[in-house]
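Hey, I'm writing a tutorial for new members on how sequence and structure tokens pair up, and I'd like a real worked example in the thread rather than a made-up one. If someone can provide the structure for the chain below, I'll link this post from the tutorial.
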Amino acid sequence: MAVLRAGGVGGSARGHRDGHPQLRNLPARRKPYAPLTGDASGDLYGTTYQGGGANLGVVFRLNKSGETVLHNFAGGSDGANPYAGVKLDSAGNLYGTTYRGGTANAGVVYKVGP
């Protein structure tokens, strides 16, 4: 079992004191609350409650090349502060929900394409 640790910049494969390998450090203040989703090629997808250009969260992909931000939430119709993870369909689309944003500031269901 591998565990991702938050807090810090950069990545490494060194062990953590609890014995689990550390795969990647996420930038500080990102707050990843939800589990990751994996695809057939081994890429991992997730969300962070904060971080990104507006500090309202991101959808990201982790793979051997590093981290790629797939979407920065802006707080309007695209939503803000994703608290849950993402679901991946067979076409490579990611679906999820946000805690805030949308017309009533009560969250949205979003889709991020491949």
